[in-house]
Amino acid sequence: MQLPPKVTDRAFERLAEIGAGAQGQALRVAVEGGGCSGFQYEIKLDAPEADDLVLEGQGERVVVDAVSLPFLTGATIDFTEELIGARFIIDNPNASSSCGCGTSFSM
Hints:
The chain is mainly β and 107 residues long.
């Protein structure tokens, strides 16, 4: 049984702050080949597609395509504000290693 990714309240709050849902947009989290560790995350605002897994909260949506979903089993999608900037982050238990930028990982 694959656990779908979780989205924190903080991530949904940030989407509400930027008005994503009001514009018909969702936060798309995708995994693609590349990056310094073999895979990299692509995180962007996008319109939901028919085959997406849709995670909803606080009137906002996070979507994951069917190809990316197995790579994100049990992951947590969060939003953080640090000195280097504010960004959405992925805490992925499937990643055996990741690089310093936090957007690339290997399995």
